[in-house]
Amino acid sequence: MEYLIEKGFVVQTPSAIARFLISRKGLSKQKIGEYLGNHDAFCIAALECFAGEIDLCGLEIDQAMRKFQTYFRLPGEAQKISRVLETFSSRYMTCNSLAERIFLDDLNILRVAYGIIMLNTDLHNPSIRKERKMSQDDFIKNMRGALSEDTMVNDTMLREIYMRIKGEEFKPGNDHVSQVQRVDKQIIGDNKPVLPLPHRRLVCFCRLYEVYDETRKERSNAHQREVFLFNDLMVVTKQNGARKKNSPIIYRCRMSFPLIDTEVVLFSTAQHPNGLKLVNRSSKVTLVMLNARNEHDRDKFVEDLQESIKEMDEMETLRVENEVEKQRFNVTLRATENRDSGVADVLDDSKSNLSATSSSPDHVVIKRAVILSNSLLDMSDQQMAKHAPVTRRGSTASLDSGMCMPGSSAASTQSTPSSEGPASANPKAMNKPSILSSFFTRKSGKYQI
Question: In tens digits, what is the pLDDT along the chain, a chain of 449 residues?
């Protein structure tokens, strides 16, 4: 988020960031949940603004929670879950005038919300055996022990909640990560790379034909390949046997190529009139040659491929600049410590990777093993990209990009189309004890919250 603020993608106010997270396409639901669950005052204020953007009026509490969770993935850390559910409870009370009469206060709403989360996990966790799953009576007993005695939450309401959750699992809304996860299930092979990563998204899916010799004539439809183009990776596959009825197509991975330090070269011969090559920019080695069925297919695929390569070049340039800045800071810090301690301001070459004759922080050696932990920059870089001016993209592979899914084996190219005021954090929410360890006191039996 700091990077997006620095580059002008979003204004640094809680309301602006909340609106950005809830409306911007191409963001990871998991990363949104982790950010909103942070403990600092700014993130708590952003979480409150985020919840304020969601209409929960007229919904039962479990239905409201289901809608609330479509905008992010609930984080796994207990304290983050507590902060998110506290904000949900307050928002649900605000949206529903009858909630105060039924639940009395937001603390009882919070207790029910925790019970619903635990029930959803218990019922839909495949590692829990069927006979060990929470029964309807167990759930009601759990809630009766947790809620205040004077609430109007009756057994009928709890049974309805149980049946709705049993019938449909809570799931976050679709994002680029869930799209890649579905594609990952369709691709097999020992050399298949790990596909579901927070920064990775599917750009397009295209049927092309592999070329081994650009001067050699091949029979029609020879070496047919299904190519999955991601924003940082190209995966060349082949359909794995005939498609079975009522089952998805399975593809076998033949090769994959990171797009860092690559370029596209077009070629046209009598045998392959719509050819293209993916070439390593540094070594000029051809990685793969492909031919499209027609010029339109080639142009659309090459456009998407060039945009993805450009994105990787920009991300690599930013990664290098960030690493240089970190190493310059370390050099300056060491020099300051040496001066303060009276030690000569000399750095060991073997430890600092700096020239003995270089006293300027400009002489910095980039450590290639370092990979940044930012989801926008966290790329597994194979080769150093050449430095190029960083420009903001407005293409199909930008943050607004949509996604496409190979729904059938049809031979067609499918590519993706390519004022706020500050809010303050609630100090009471920051000082509350952990909900997991404090308010469920009257519990007994097999399932305890």
Answer: 887 888 788 899 999 999 999 988 778 888 899 999 999 999 999 999 999 999 999 999 999 999 999 999 888 889 999 999 999 999 999 999 888 889 999 899 999 999 999 999 999 998 889 889 999 999 999 998 889 888 899 999 999 999 999 999 988 877 778 889 889 999 999 999 999 888 898 999 999 999 999 888 888 788 999 999 999 999 999 998 777 777 788 999 999 999 999 999 999 998 899 999 999 999 999 999 999 999 999 999 999 999 999 999 988 888 888 888 888 888 888 877 666 555 444 444 444 443 434 444 444 444 443 333 333 344 444 334 444 444 444 444 343 444 344 444 333 444 443 344 444 444 444 444 444 444 444 444 444 44
Give the whole-angstrom CA distance, residue 318 versus residue 323.
8
CA 66 to chain centre: 20
Contacts of 109 (CB under 8 A, 6+ apart): 61, 89, 92, 93, 99, 103
- 125: tokens are 């966790």
Question: What is the pairing mode between strands 251-258 and 187-188?
Answer: parallel
Beta pairing, strands 275-280 & 286-291 = antiparallel
Closest-CA residue to 232 (of 320, 312, 302)? 312
Task: Outline where 345-388 has alpha helix (H).
Answer: 349-352
Q: Which residues pair with 277 in a beta bridge?
A: 265, 289
H-type alpha helices, 201-344: 295-341
Q: For Cα atoms 449, 29, 48, give the angle at the middle one, nearest 5 degrees.
A: 70
CA gap 136, 114 in Å, rounded = 16
Please say whether the beta carbons of 225 and 209 come within 8 A: yes
Helix, strand, or coil (residue 150): coil
